[in-house]
Design brief:
Elements: H1 14-32, H2 39-46, H3 50-53, H4 60-83, H5 90-103, H6 106-114, H7 120-144, H8 150-164, H9 176-190, H10 213-228, H11 235-242, H12 246-249, H13 256-282, H14 286-301, H15 306-312, H16 315-320, H17 324-344, H18 351-370, H19 372-379, H20 390-396
Length: about 400
């Protein structure tokens, strides 16, 4: 949560003021989206003047980087502290990080959703720090489970870290102890998966090659929004990607927001196709239907950027663009997962537990799909393994992360 504004005349040490600004910015970025928050907004939330912010940070980007770095540094410090104990295990590591994530989820959420706003140098520094943590965790997991291959251990480590990153900025009515305990159970079930032996995902419904300019624009914009972030892409950028001028794009879409709504509408259609298909093969079994939904979702994630864009662009941006109904459809889709999981658990999971499990599952899938280039480079996967992201398959293998059934 953001630090409460101080009264006029209150003096803070530079480090305290930086911390206050980072806390205020974290809350604003999560509530409003990075693109809509100004330095003046951050200053106002911290109770100081706009020019005073520049004594501590050169620009808004630097504040975002500091907020994200706090999560990476805290995770590294937690890892080092746990590993300093004799006989520390992988479960000790995950438990400590889950405690951190549940008590202060904001910086981790920023790292997951906003890293495209960093400069190339800032991103490299944080990726290097994250890779250091990932390497330490993987080494401990391989020691605890020598039967795992190096690649499987790295995939499972990343999946468990994604479980920790699944905590939303607001936990609602779910208490810290309950949330942490459920995450620990989910992590243990994730570790039972075997990425290299997981079944192939079904191919998603084929997408036709674009035959009209509007389809080409949606395809190009989806890729640009995914790789660079919605707020940094201009109509000129989108036009250049399809070989036309920026003003010519307006002949097909009245605004960038309407392009976003078109992308989200396509993502919604893909989800609906998955829902219909899953219901058709489930024969009334809620877990069978959920497994089919999971597989269709993962398959669409790794073959198109539409879903990733739809689930990561800020809610406020989509609403401003006229996409309230589409957001409601997304919410209903997640609620369907929760209802099916709760119904199929034979009372083992209540509604809160089902929400936590579904949140973890979707975070694993979204994180792997969103960082696939970095992920593949880090794992140095064989060509055969590149057909599908085995980490996504592993996370969802028979839904072991959510139920033992």
């Amino acid at each position: 949560m953001a630090t409460a504004p101080r009264t006029a005349g209150t003096r803070l040490r530079p480090a305290e003021r930086r911390r206050q600004l980072v806390d205020a910015a974290t809350e604003l970025f999560l509530e409003q989206g990075y693109g809509k928050v100004s330095v003046a907004d951050i200053a106002r939330a911290a109770g100081i003047s706009g020019p005073s912010v520049y004594r501590h940070f050169p620009d808004k980007e630097a504040i975002l980087a500091a907020a994200m770095r706090s999560a990476v540094d805290e995770m590294a410090e937690t890892t080092a502290r746990v590993l300093a104990r004799p006989g520390a295990t992988f479960e000790d590591l995950s438990s400590a990080v889950f405690a951190m994530a549940v008590s202060r989820p904001g910086p981790l959420a920023l790292w997951r959703w906003n890293r495209r706003h960093l400069t190339a140098e800032q991103a490299r520094e944080m990726i290097a720090a994250s890779e250091g943590v990932l390497g330490s965790w993987t080494e401990v997991l391989r020691r605890d489970h020598p039967e795992l291959t190096d690649d499987d251990a790295r995939v499972l480590t990343w999946a468990v870290l994604a479980v920790g990153g699944s905590v939303p900025p607001s936990r609602g009515r779910i208490g810290i102890r309950r949330y942490r305990a459920d995450l620990e159970v989910i992590a243990r079930r994730v570790l039972r998966a075997a990425p290299s032996t997981a079944p192939e995902l079904p191919a998603p419904p084929p997408r036709r090659a674009p035959v009209v300019r509007s389809d080409e624009i949606l395809d190009a914009a989806s890729e640009l929004f995914f790789s660079r972030g919605y707020s940094t892409v201009s109509m000129d950028d989108i036009g250049a990607a399809v070989g036309i001028s920026g003003p010519s794009v307006y002949g097909h879409f009245p605004s960038k927001g309407s392009i976003l709504v078109g992308i989200v509408a396509r993502a919604r259609a893909a989800l609906e196709i998955g829902v219909v298909g899953a219901a058709g093969v489930s024969d009334g079994d809620p877990l069978a239907e959920l497994r089919a939904l999971v597989r269709s979702y993962a398959a669409n994630l790794v073959t198109s950027t539409d879903l990733a864009v739809a689930f990561t662009v800020g809610r406020e941006v989509v609403i401003e663009s006229g996409g309230e109904a589409l957001l409601a459809a997304q919410k209903a889709y997640v609620a369907r997962w929760v209802a099916l999981l709760s119904a199929g658990s034979d009372g083992a999971l209540d509604a809160a537990g089902a929400r936590i499990a579904v949140g973890a599952a979707m975070t694993i899938a979204n994180d792997f799909a969103r960082t696939r280039e970095l992920w593949m480079r880090a794992l140095a996967l064989t060509p055969e393994a590149r057909d599908y992201l085995p980490g996504v398959r592993a996370a969802f293998n028979d839904l072991r992360l959510a139920t033992d059934r």
